[in-house]
Design brief:
It is a single chain. By secondary structure, the chain is mainly beta. The strands form three sheets. Strands 3, 4, 6, 9, 10, 11 and 14 form a seven-stranded antiparallel beta sheet that branches. A five-stranded antiparallel beta sheet has the order 5-13-7-8-12, with no helix packed on it. Strands 1-2 form a two-stranded antiparallel sheet. It is elongated.
Length: 181
């Protein structure tokens, strides 16, 4: 049995789009925040549930992108709640005015750089295993500085009372380098 050298393994990962050099470093695999965080009990404030940082310049090339999975549990109250997935300070996915009570949520999103400081994508949102209607989910294009360090963050906001909106249970961000035609 023979094993690949580290250099050969890196070349193979780069060929598959699973690793790429960014700012002189190799970026490969997932960036993970596996912590369970209960959102603060502050009304009408985006309380951070989970967050990860991206390397400088990662989204600076057209075709580079992120596959994002965020999950958690809505707070055990009937108040209206917003859950957001953000790139920097821009909400790219928002679950709007959900009254889900102690139900699990999952956000699956893909975000791709499509120009200088411009990103776009799509998302699927599930609450309690059911697909959330498109009218309750807003997907926005982002226009963040692709040359700066950025964060991917999930936040919760209770719109009705000074109570928690959700508990973030995890966030996984998988970078990829796509091929543009």
């Amino acid at each position: 049995m023979s094993f690949l050298t580290e250099e050969a393994a890196v070349r193979n990962l780069m060929a598959l789009g699973l690793a790429m050099p960014v700012s002189g470093k190799l970026l490969a695999g997932a960036i993970v925040d596996p912590t369970s965080v209960i959102g603060a009990s502050v009304q009408s404030t985006d309380n951070v549930l989970n967050s990860v940082s991206l390397d400088d310049e990662f989204l600076s090339r057209i075709g580079r992108g992120l596959f994002i999975v965020a999950w958690g549990t809505m707070a055990a109250n009937g108040n209206t709640k917003d859950i957001k997935l953000k790139l920097g300070t821009t909400a790219i996915v928002t679950i709007t005015d959900s009254t889900a009570n102690a139900k699990d949520f999952v956000i699956l999103a893909v975000l791709v750089s499509d120009g200088a400081d411009s990103q776009r994508g799509t998302a699927i949102v599930l609450i309690d295993g059911a697909l959330v209607a498109a009218s309750s989910v807003n997907m926005s294009a982002a226009t963040v500085d692709a040359n700066a360090t950025q964060t991917i963050t999930t936040t919760g906001d209770n719109n009705s009372a000074a109570a928690s909106a959700a508990t973030g249970k995890g966030l996984v961000v998988i970078p990829f380098s796509g091929v543009t035609s």
